[in-house]
Amino acid sequence: MNLLIALARFLIFPGLLFAVPAAWMVLWLERKAVALLQQRIGPPFGQPFFDFIKLLAKDTPPRSGVNGMLMRTWPLIAVAASLGAVGLLPVLPTHGGFEGDLILLLALMELPAICLIIAGFSSRSLFGEIGSAREAVLLVSYNLVFLMAVVSIAVAQHSFRLEALAAAPLNAWRYLGLLAILLCLPAKLHVNPFSLPNAEQEIYSGPMTEYAGFELALWQLSHGLEWIAGVGLVAALAVPASAYVWLDVVSILFVGFILVLALSLIAAATARLAIDTTVRFYWQCTLVFAVAAISSALFMRLRS
Amino acid sequence: MKLWKRLLCTARRRSPWIFHMNSGSCNGCDIELIAALTPRYDAEQLGVLLQGSPRHADILCVTGPVTHTSAPAVHTVYEQVCGPKAVVAIGSCPASTNVFIDSRVIVGPLSKHLPVDVFVPGCPPRPDAIVRGIATAANLLAERSDHPAKADPLAVCSVNAEEVKS
After folding, report:
1. B53 → closest Cβ in A41, A44, A209
2. Which of the two residues, A2 and B110, has the higher pLDDT score?
3. Inter-chain CB proximity A51 and B47 less than 8 Å
4. Considering only CB atoms, which chain A residues are within 8 Å of B19?
5. What domain range is B27 assigned to?
6. Total structural domains in chain B?
7. What pLDDT, in 10s, does the model give residues A61-80?
8. Domain-located, residue B2
9. In degrees to the nearest 10, what's the CA dihedral of B109, B115, B117, B118?
10. What is the ipTM of this complex?
11. B166 pLDDT more than 50
């Protein structure tokens, strides 16, 4: 029975069967929202799905040897990791089944970014290498804040278990931590003020410059799944648990929808920052949030 | 299998990603191509995305009369676009080398170098004509995935003034 529940979570909700269409939906929503804010009509409904199908059937340039094999493998690992992260999201309360904890979720959420860095370097393209270097610097700058915020949430509830965190009553400290996570999301999802690794006017497509066909399709899918994992984590932790499961699910989806719109608004309204400004932003300005969150959480714990 | 083929046709028609290649153009057509992507003409309604890397593109949009210096680059970029692909020649220059005809630095027109699928004449062509040219090329790609031999390799797209006014 436990195995069945675990499989259902990974394959149906919030895993594969839900997450892949939801990823296309989020990618479409982001493009459409940016288009509407620029007074355009924007892409028709389901555009990322058609892009995915078209890319699947396109040729890939011939690649030989270990390097070619690696270039085919990185997007697969990225998709698998982000699917795993989405499958772990504490959306439904499980009675038994596979209970992942926050540390596993964080590891799975980091893996696509690391795959992207290695993929850029293994493509041996100049633009790919610059994009990977930028992604690595970005990873170091926002992860300090991101991890501190996540740890503060966990410390405040005395637990790293996702189920316990999602079920625990909300307090002001958690919102402080969630705010710090929200500040990291634009960098994690490469949307506009921090779209450094895929800055198309500067370095073409960054790490993905050499990727074509189904590899590119998988990168797009993994990007969409990263959206679902990041936004879903914030939404699942922000929505208080109610008596009804369906009410929880609907309110998590609603909060996620609002978050996607808000991130698109930021993307449409801002210009790209330089890499040094980005690092300074995260290490000087945003760190204050994370430190406040973690110290208040520790204080709470010492008092109780 | 038939369903997959039909889905693929639709996907190719609805998601043309373009790569813009300047082969010695005067920048007139390039401005109009960019205008086709701006809010006023908004080619993204048809799923058109301007890609930075030729590896991601389906449709190669070439402007300019193909100068001696740019000819090797045109060949390289065409090889870098992954199949199935189409070529759209934007402006009169790639079609006929236009006012630069008989110049000793011009090795055009473009059809000497690449199999051109759609010509969009004009000096420069209107953005609506460019959007229509890209849409025609996307339709060609979709038709070819159905019947490789049937599709008409040459198409000329223009929007005349009366049509725009109405």
Report:
1. A209
2. B110
3. yes
4. none
5. 9-159
6. 1
7. 888 778 888 888 999 999 99
8. no
9. -10
10. 0.87
11. no
